[in-house]
Amino acid sequence: MGRSLLIYVSVHHGNTEKVAKAIAVALEADSLRLPEVDVHMIRRYDLIGFGSGIYFGKHHRTLLDFVDGLPVLREKKAFVFSTSGLRRMRFVHDFSKPLLARLERRGFDIVGEFSCRGFDTFGATMLVGGIQRGRPDERDLDRAASFARTLKDHNDR
Length: 157
Ligand SMILES: Cc1cc2nc3c(=O)[nH]c(=O)nc-3n(C[C@H](O)[C@H](O)[C@H](O)COP(=O)(O)O)c2cc1C
Fold this sequence. Notes:
Strands 1, 2, 3, 4, 5 and 6 form a 6-stranded mixed sheet that branches. The chain is of the alpha/beta class. It has 4 helices and 6 strands. 37% of the residues are buried. Helix 1 packs parallel to helix 4 and helix 2 runs parallel beside helix 3. It has one domain: Flavodoxin domain (Rossmann fold). The structure holds flavin mononucleotide. The site of flavin mononucleotide (FMN) has 20 residues, from helix 1, strand 3 and strand 5. The site of flavin mononucleotide has 20 residues, from helix 1, strand 3 and strand 5.
């Protein structure tokens, strides 16, 4: 079986870190939080997951910049994951698109995408005590784990 690595950023409430942990267990993957990632380490892995909270309609700037700084890699699979206050909406809030476009430019073969809601107290949401309180919850983490098992089957082939 190929080796898997998760690279993530989780700065608002640690929401994405919970998802990263659930995925890491199910996928038996190593995981690293930016900026503690050495670009050269990536070469040792076959499948790499990139994740963060969604900030102004995109993954976190640090993650996008990290991908921009990667060399063009061949024969690597990638997947993306995120937590966000609001759900994905085609055209208006298509938040995985900027990260996916960057990964494709770096030669990754994209094999999956996972997203769920995350507790959000940014800006006006603070007036109502935040939105999506308690998320990600057990159900979200179970979904993340089953998403990871699908990837594992894929990577085992
Ligand atoms: C500065 C800021 C901007 C945000 N922008 C968005 C956004 O555009 N869309 C959205 O759905 N959620 C947005 N959120 C909510 C976060 O995506 C959500 O809370 C996420 O779960 C945070 O993940 P983290 O705790 O792993 O950093 C924003 C939060 C902050 C603090």
